């Protein structure tokens, strides 16, 4: 997945260098950690107490490219729970393309 991601990012970077000066590139990075404490999750209260505390992190990379008649957007997402995945040689499959779109305006003032 990392090799394909690098190829996509290199291609987008190359497109930005080749295009005319009337273009705009926005890169937005979001990192959202979310802590959660669970007390008897999905069970009735009883003598056995099952507690859980974990932190989930959602990372988003949004790339939006706009030109006079063309707009392209790509959002990559990675969702992890801290401590669940190994840091070396990981292949968890939790990275994905969250959103991909393009818009081509044939008429300038068409809304």
What would your notes on this structure say?
The model has no long low-confidence stretch (mean pLDDT 78). This protein is α+β, with helices and mostly antiparallel strands and 111 residues long. It has one helix at residues 2-18; strands at residues 24-39, 51-66, 70-81, 95-104. The protein has one domain (2-104).
In brief, what are we looking at here?
This protein is an alpha+beta fold and 111 residues long. It is built from 1 helix and 4 strands, in the order αββββ. The protein has one domain (2-104).
Q: Helical element count?
A: 1
Order of helices and strands: HEEEE
Write down the domain tally: 1
N-to-C CA distance: 37 Å
The helix content is 10-25%
Specify the structural class. Answer: alpha+beta
Strand content: over 45%
Which sequence of strands runs across the widest sheet?
A: 1-2-3-4
Gyration radius, in Å:
21 Å
Estimate the global geometry from the Cα principal axes.
elongated
Number of strands: 4
The pLDDT mean sits at: 78
Largest sheet: 4 strands, antiparallel
pLDDT below 50 for ≥5 consecutive residues: which ranges?
A: none
């Amino acid at each position: 997945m990392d090799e394909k991601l690098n190829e996509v990012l290199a291609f987008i970077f190359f497109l930005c260098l080749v295009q005319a000066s009337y273009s705009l590139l926005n890169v937005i990075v979001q990192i959202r950690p979310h802590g959660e404490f669970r007390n008897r999750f999905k069970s009735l209260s009883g003598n056995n107490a099952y507690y859980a505390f974990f932190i989930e992190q959602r990372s988003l990379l949004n790339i939006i490219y706009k030109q006079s008649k063309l707009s392209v957007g790509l959002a990559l997402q990675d969702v992890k729970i801290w401590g669940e995945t190994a840091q070396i040689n990981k292949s968890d499959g939790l990275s994905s393309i969250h959103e991909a779109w393009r818009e081509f305006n044939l008429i300038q003032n068409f809304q």
